[in-house]
Predict the 3D structure of the following.
Amino acid sequence: MTISAQVKQTLASLKGVQGTLETFSSSGGDPEAKEILNRNSQKIAIIIKNLEKRLGVLEFEEPQYKGF
Amino acid sequence: MPEWLNILLRTTGLFMLTLLLVRLIGKRQTSRLTFFDLVTGIAIGVIAAAISLNLAVNLTNGLIALVVWTGFPALIYLLSIKYKAVRDIVQGKETVLINHGKVLEDKLLEARFTPEDLLSQLRKKNVFNFADVEFAVLEPTGEVSALLKKDKQPLTPKTAGLNVGQESVPQTVMLDGTIMDEPLTAMGLNRRWLHTELEKAGVAPENVFIGQVDSVGQLYLDLFDDTIQVPKPKAKELAFATLKKCQADCELYALGTKQPEAKKMYGKSSKILSEVIQELEPLLKR
């Protein structure tokens, strides 16, 4: 597996976790827990953005693996 | 009037009367029986029995005794709510039996407690070694309450220095195969959500005996058919494990890349993720 494929996998996992956190926060009753979940899901969003940027660079370097 | 009819009528009447009078005394008698409560209870019972079996000299005298025996306790209870002095006399005060880990022999004598009594009462509280007790007190009801020494108290998350997430009461959304709409809406969910979750678990709604939703919206099920294994919700644990994996991935990429810029970005991501993991651990894992 190339690096770009691995990064893609990590990216997908992170997006999944972010989704899970958001569902928890939308159905959770405790406002404090909600706040923690929201804050951390925003932090993960930043990482996702960074990784996506990096992925763009990687795909530019290895165009043959683009889209996988 | 034949004697049996007389007794039948008396007993029926007295039964009703005693029921009414005992209600008048109030509820607290049976829940916490002090010695005084016991005495009044027995007196009322004996008088009622004596009247109904015609053992009392005459009916009026018996009834007067009965009314006094129920009226006074009722009055005293009312007074004892208002005045502490009355309360101390009627209900008795608690007696400290062990203080700072030392048994107070004179107090024990005052309470007519033998050492065996003390030990047996402590054993009832699951304390088998009296040296574990910091403080013990004899309640007016005759029960012994004990405070254990700090190092013998049960371990709580706080004493272990752990943060735990807040968890509110789980809502029961299905009972006996029927959907309870009220708890569902209280959680901000609806029937469609429930049907999707049931489908995910591969369970027919008719087969569900109990269904509960916890504070983060995970559905726990018990089925009529006990041979079927229901998958336990693992979303929390899974999210936590995935986060850890992603953090490890980022570190790996940081080591693998040769571009300083990317190295920095991966390093930062991994740091942020470890912060996220630390913050979410109480919520997702505990």
